[in-house]
Amino acid sequence: MKLTIKTQVEQDYLTVKNGFDASLFKKLSPPFPPVKLLRFDGSKKGDLVSLELNFLAFKQTWTSEITEDQTNEKEFYFVDEGVKLPFFLKSWRHKHRIIQSGDQSIIRDEIQYQAPFGLLTLLLYPALLLQFAYRIPVYKKIFKRKA
Description:
Blueprint: E1 2-9, H1 13-19, H2 22-28, E2 35-40, E3 48-54, E4 59-71, E5 75-84, E6 91-101, E7 104-114, H3 118-133, H4 135-142
Antiparallel strand pairs: 1-7, 2-3, 3-4, 4-5, 5-6, 6-7
């Protein structure tokens, strides 16, 4: 299943690129499930990001590896792919794109995922959509043009 979320922000793509750090990652986490950042190497190929999802009755570890990253004159992107996923996911690929748009930029989350069975893949879509929609006002606030 594919999911794409786009957010226009007021800063240029290289400034936004430099803001993609552990601090931003923590701010992007929605209230539920609570997320504990276990490891954050960065957003370069070979880096790992590991977190713990707390579903109150149980916890799940999610570890992704950055498998690609590139910066050119118009865009920066990196791809994280799940290497250890929560039980409800069979595969995960998330391409984070920051695209220059005039003197602003667009943050584009392109997600491909699959659950262990088809019905669950469909049922996860609205939950994932909400999780990533939560990021829109956070991105807009953090990457607001400085006065």
